[in-house]
């Protein structure tokens, strides 16, 4: 009962993540499963009547169905009747299988459409989380979750749950039919087939559930290994460290394959072979029973025919039930990806509405922030940023400079305090538009693996890109001559994370991106740390153009060249900003 309750809980959890519309469609799919079960039973019945009509001449006249059909067709000769019913059997099975395939197609379509919707909502939920969410979670865990939500839910949870209902319906209807026609065979079937099925279901449930969770744990480790290898390959090679990553990958992969092999053998191969043995053993037992009890050939033929026909359809059903149980048991962790409540509609941020303009001043008033009760970063912090300011922020490593910027951009939520711009309180309703005023140029610039043009006109489709504006922005950062000297010009790919261009070129493309966006406030976070002297000079010249254009900028830096450009310099010390 505990195992059945666990599967029932999985069903409840599955239904809980569906919207009302999806729940209604799911119930339609369940109804179609019952309908396909009735069609399957009808198919077995027609098959059995055909076989008995061939083997037992008297069966035609004594059976209600065959007698009615014989009289309706006006056929009394056995050979002619058998020929007709055989043709009808073939036609029925063709139609039956076409109908069931269409039912299965609609069920599979529903499973993938529901997953498409659910995974999109989950992606949106994750993407719209606070920046702190991403800092507190490994990227490999997030990747694993989104892949699990998008790729695994249909075939591991939704389709097996529908199949389980379908095959259970077939099993119940078949057992009911046997009980009505041959009570002895009903008892015999229960005593032979069901114990084997029950043993496998209950034996595998805990094992497969545990192994499924282990697979779930190992996947992020493999993602992390590959991600670290590709991103840190230069440092890894300098340390002769590729073997370390190879060994770690092989070790984790060996664990993964060990569990997957065990899952596959336990859920796919063993049940099928066991049921084959059970079916053959059952037929032999039926024959022995008939011989021992001195039943005639007629009864023997009936028993063997009915049991063979039942086995022909019941054993695959039991096998599919077991497979569905195994799938649900092994992969129930996939539903953990949807443990957060999913609303009926998730509104995606739109930059086209609620645009804001920075005219005078941004204020942080009585701001406090802490990562935990024991780790207070800021306490009652006050700060003003006026339009046109060039402000420098210095401080020891770990003092909270980047945290301060994340609070100013409203990427972090403060523990206490109010953020206002031109006396407008920045809250949940307008924070997207407020964030759009900023451009953040870091030491390691984020670049898309696409063209220079699309890295300037960031996240815009081809038809939306203003190429003349891209050229103007590149010219403002003194990159246009270099870009036009390239064979593919602005369509030149920058490579993964910008690895095909220099650090100085990346920094200036980031500034050109901010100019294209028409950002009001620029943040430079140790932006020139890894640049050579010439690149620093070119980058600072580009920043000077921003000053001339009346833009606002904040520098997180200790470099004198950058601090000289600032009209105010603050030091972060003891949870406060002190002007120096």
General description of the model:
The chain is 64% helix and 11% strand. It has 19 helices and 10 strands. It has helices spanning 2-17, 20-55, 59-62, 64-73, 78-127, 131-135, 139-181, 183-231, 233-238, 242-292, 297-331, 401-408, 431-435, 452-456, 467-476, 480-485, 503-517, 533-548, 560-563, and strands at residues 361-372, 375-386, 390-395, 416-421, 424-425, 438-442, 521-525, 552-556, 568-573, 576-579. The strands form 2 sheets. The chain has a 6-stranded mixed sheet with strand order 6-7-8-3-9-10, with helices on both faces. A 4-stranded antiparallel sheet has the order 2-1-4-5, with helices on one face. The longest helix has 51 residues, at 242-292. The radius of gyration is 35 Å and the shape is elongated. The protein starts with a helix and ends with a strand.
Please name the defining characteristics of this protein:
580 residues, alpha/beta, 6-stranded mixed beta sheet, 4-stranded antiparallel beta sheet, 19 helices, 10 strands, 64% helix
């Amino acid at each position: 009962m505990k195992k059945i309750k666990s599967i029932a809980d999985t069903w409840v959890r599955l239904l809980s993540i569906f919207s009302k519309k999806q729940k209604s469609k799911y119930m339609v799919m369940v109804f179609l499963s019952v309908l396909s079960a009735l069609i399957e039973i009808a198919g077995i019945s027609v098959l059995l009547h055909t076989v008995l009509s061939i083997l037992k001449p008297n069966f035609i006249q004594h059976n209600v169905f065959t007698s009615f059909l014989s009289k309706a067709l006006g056929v009394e000769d056995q050979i002619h009747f058998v020929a007709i019913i055989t043709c009808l059997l073939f036609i029925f099975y063709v139609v039956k299988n076409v109908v069931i395939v269409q039912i299965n197609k609609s069920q599979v379509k529903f499973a993938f459409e529901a997953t498409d919707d659910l995974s999109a909502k989950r992606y949106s939920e994750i993407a719209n989380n606070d920046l702190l969410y991403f800092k507190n979670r490994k990227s490999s865990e997030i990747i694993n979750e989104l892949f699990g939500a998008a790729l695994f839910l249909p075939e591991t949870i939704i389709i097996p749950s529908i199949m389980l209902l379908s095959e259970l319906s077939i099993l119940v209807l078949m057992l009911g039919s046997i009980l009505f026609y041959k009570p002895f065979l009903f008892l015999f079937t229960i005593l032979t087939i069901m114990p084997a099925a029950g043993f496998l279901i209950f034996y595998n449930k805990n094992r497969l559930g545990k192994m499924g969770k282990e697979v779930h744990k190992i996947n992020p480790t493999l993602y992390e290994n590959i991600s670290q290898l590709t991103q840190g390959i230069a440092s890894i090679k300098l340390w002769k460290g590729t073997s370390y990553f190879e060994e770690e990958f092989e070790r984790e992969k060996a664990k993964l394959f060990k569990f997957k092999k065990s899952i596959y053998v336990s859920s796919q191969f063993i049940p099928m072979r066991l049921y084959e043995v059970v079916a053959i053993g059952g037929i032999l037992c039926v024959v022995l029973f008939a011989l021992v009890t001195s039943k005639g050939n007629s009864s023997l033929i009936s028993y063997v025919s009915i049991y063979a026909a039942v086995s022909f359809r019941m054993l695959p059903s039991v096998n599919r039930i077991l497979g569905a149980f195994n799938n649900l048991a092994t992969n129930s962790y996939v539903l953990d990806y949807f443990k957060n409540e999913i609303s009926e509609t998730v509104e995606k941020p739109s930059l086209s509405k609620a645009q804001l303009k920075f005219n005078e001043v941004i204020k942080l008033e009585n701001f406090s922030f802490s990562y935990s009760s024991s780790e207070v970063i800021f306490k009652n912090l006050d700060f003003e940023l006026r339009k046109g300011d060039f402000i420098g922020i210095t401080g020891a490593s770990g003092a909270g400079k980047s945290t301060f910027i994340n609070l100013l951009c409203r990427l972090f939520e403060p523990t206490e305090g109010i953020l206002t711009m031109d006396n407008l309180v920045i809250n949940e309703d307008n924070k997207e538009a407020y964030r759009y005023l900023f451009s953040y140029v870091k030491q390691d610039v984020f670049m898309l693996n696409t063209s220079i043009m699309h890295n300037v006109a960031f996240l815009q489709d081809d038809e939306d890109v203003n190429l003349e504006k891209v050229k103007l922005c590149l010219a403002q950062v003194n990159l246009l001559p270099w870009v036009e000297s390239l064979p593919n010009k602005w369509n030149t790919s920058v490579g993964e994370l910008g690895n095909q261009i220099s650090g100085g070129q990346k920094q200036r493309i980031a500034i050109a991106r901010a100019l294209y966006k028409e950002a009001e406030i620029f943040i430079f976070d140790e932006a020139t740390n890894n640049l050579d002297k010439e690149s620093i000079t070119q980058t600072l010249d580009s920043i000077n153009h921003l000053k001339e254009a009346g833009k606002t900028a904040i520098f997180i830096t200790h470099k004198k060249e950058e601090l000289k450009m600032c009209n105010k310099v603050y030091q972060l010390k003891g949870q406060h900003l002190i002007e120096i």
